[in-house]
Amino acid sequence: MAAVLVIEDDDRIRLSLVMALEDEGYTVTGAATAEEGLEAQRSRRADTVLVDLMLPGIDGFECIRQIRRTDDAPIVVISARNDTHDIVAALEAGADDYLVKPVAVKELTARLRALRRRARTGPETLRLLRFGDLEIEPDAGEVRLRDTPVQLTRTEFQLLCELAEHAGKVLSRQQLLQRVWQYDSGDERLVDVHVGRLRQKIEDDASAPQHLLTVRGLGYKLHR
Asked: Pfam families given for it (predicted)?
């Protein structure tokens, strides 16, 4: 059964999340601080991590960054902060998704199931996909820019593969949410921030991209 780590300093919220997820069949570990959560993830890696942003000591943003240095487990932020700046900052730190408190258990478990499906399925092609000096091997989980390996998170890699499999075709933000995150609906900022992160890694100049292009009013496409 999938394991979930809940990093939340509010005892009432943490306990309610732990109990609700255990009722859904998950194995759940709770941590009241980022420090406790980081130690728990190092010692017994969870499949998914839920993180609050307003934590004592190390805050949620830094907690996410520290997890991301060594771990590609999906990270979902659960926070009362709904400001666009906070959402974008959390996603740029390495989070895969962002839910605003109070969180409905059904919505949370639906998101967790979608994350698990993504982890199980992944790209199916064995082909080497080339876009000029950018090479993508979906089955091997490898990306190279001018023969230099590019380190991507799981979500960034799956987003890049989805665009690569539809090279030259414009995919809307909602299509990408459905295909990459497997959400029927959701916040389109998830897509925009991850596209921005991808450009920082696969473009010589992220402000003037040559590979991952924006088609105004429509969405994104990967250009050969």
From this structure: Response_reg, Trans_reg_C
**Which own/partner pairs from 136-142 qualify as long-range (CB within 8 Å, at least 24 positions apart)?**
136/160, 136/161, 136/164, 138/164, 138/165
What CATH number has the domain bearing residue 97? 3.40.50.2300
Do 103 and 21 fall into the same domain? yes
Tens-place pLDDT, residues 175-206? 999 999 888 877 888 999 999 999 999 999 99
- Structural domain containing residue 61: 3-121
- End residue of a domain, out of 88, 121, 154: 121
CA-based nearest residue to 211, from 130, 153, 126 = 130
163-173 pLDDT per residue, tens: 999 998 999 99
Residues 158 and 179 in one domain: yes
Residue type, 115: L
Q: Are strands 129-131 and 134-137 parallel, antiparallel or unpaired?
A: antiparallel
Helix (H) or strand (E) holding 98: strand 97-100
Structure tokens at 181: 């995150």
Q: Are 162 and 176 in contact (CB under 8 A)?
A: yes
Rounded Cα–Cα distance for residues 135 and 223 (Å): 12
Q: Is 135 left (phi over 0), alpha (psi -120 to 50) or beta?
A: beta
State how far the alpha carbon of 139 is from the alpha carbons of 123, 127, 142, in Å.
6, 8, 8
- pTM of the predicted protein model: 0.73
